[in-house]
Amino acid sequence: MLKRIALMTSGGDAPGMNAFIRATTRYALDKGIGVFGIYEGYQGIIDNQIQGLPREDIVNIIQRGGTILKTSRSEEFMTEAGRKKAAANLEALEIDGLICCGGDGSYAGLVAFQKQWSGQMIGLPGTIDNDIKGTDFTIGFDTAVNTAVEAIDRLRDTGDAHSMHFIVEVMGRHCGNIATAVGKASGAEYVLIPETVSDIDEVNQAIQVKGHNIVVVAEGDELGGAYKIAQLLEKKSGDKSFRVCILGHTQRGGRPTARDRILASEMGIRAVDALLEGESLKAVAQVNQKYKLTELNG
């Protein structure tokens, strides 16, 4: 019988993580399940930074970015000794289930943890990159895209005023989903992503249409980041009016959109139901606007 669960946010923060914490805690408490919060991700389990999570601690957090549970990356948890220590801490608190909101690395941590801890584990896709297999959307992606689009809308105003070209770099070391969505929504003249081979001649041709243009580049594009692209275009076109804007970690912060709040809340509730159904080593996914459980790929 499920009596106590622990919630954790891991890896890079994503807007909507607090909505997950709030909804999951409220739902579990209403089911008579004790809820604990793990602070600082996997390292927090090792360091026993685990505290009861009463209802009053989750008031007025749904609109906040970041995560009240904090997050970190733990090299110690990658070792068997570290995971054994973490397991002992969870067992001492008689915790039966663990729900972790994070990306691929966080999922891999759950898979590795099954060798040291016998409790149930469910993963939630919390990453702005939208690069988790098996789900159409991840928590934080919509907010990150909207943040970048708003920035580009502002850049277009000054670009038009001064006839400037802007090269806008968004996050995405291995995945171009943010760049692609941002490019479509902002009407960018060209988008460069890691999944395709970029042709600087094509980019140069695309920006000859008018006096001010927006080029979006994912940070992991093989031609390089925004500064490198600007240099290549200046050399190719002879035009010195290229300006670089690197949005960086601004895409992680800020108020989550309504879509991310709803997604995170409903996924958290589904995760509790999965634990009550006896499921473990599964991930909550949204496919064709419906929630399902998929295998926890780590």
Please describe what this structure looks like:
The protein is α/β, with parallel strands linked by helices. The protein has two domains: 4-140 and 256-295, Rossmann fold (3-Layer(aba) Sandwich); 142-251, Phosphofructokinase domain (Rossmann fold, 3-Layer(aba) Sandwich). It contains nine helices and eleven strands. The protein has helices at residues 17-30, 41-46, 80-92, 104-113, 141-162, 177-186, 200-206, 226-237, 258-276; strands at 4-9, 34-38, 50-52, 97-102, 120-125, 165-170, 190-192, 213-218, 242-246, 282-287, 290-295. A seven-stranded mixed sheet has the order 3-2-1-4-5-10-11, with helices on both faces. The chain starts with a strand and ends with a strand. The mean pLDDT is 95.
Oligomer: single chain
Estimated radius of gyration: 21 Å
The fraction of residues in strands falls at: 15-25%
Strand order of the largest sheet: 3-2-1-4-5-10-11
How many β-strand stretches?
Answer: 11
The major beta sheet can be summarized as: 7 strands, mixed
What CATH calls the topology of the largest domain is Rossmann fold
Global structural class: alpha/beta
Q: Percent range for helical residues?
A: 25-40%
Helix-strand topology string: EHEHEHEHEHEHEHEHEHEE
Shape: elongated
Number of domains: 2
CATH architecture of the largest domain: 3-Layer(aba) Sandwich
CATH class of the largest domain: Alpha Beta
Overall average pLDDT: 95
Distance between the termini: 27 Å
Q: If helices are DSSP runs of H or I spanning 4 or more residues, what is the number of helices?
A: 9
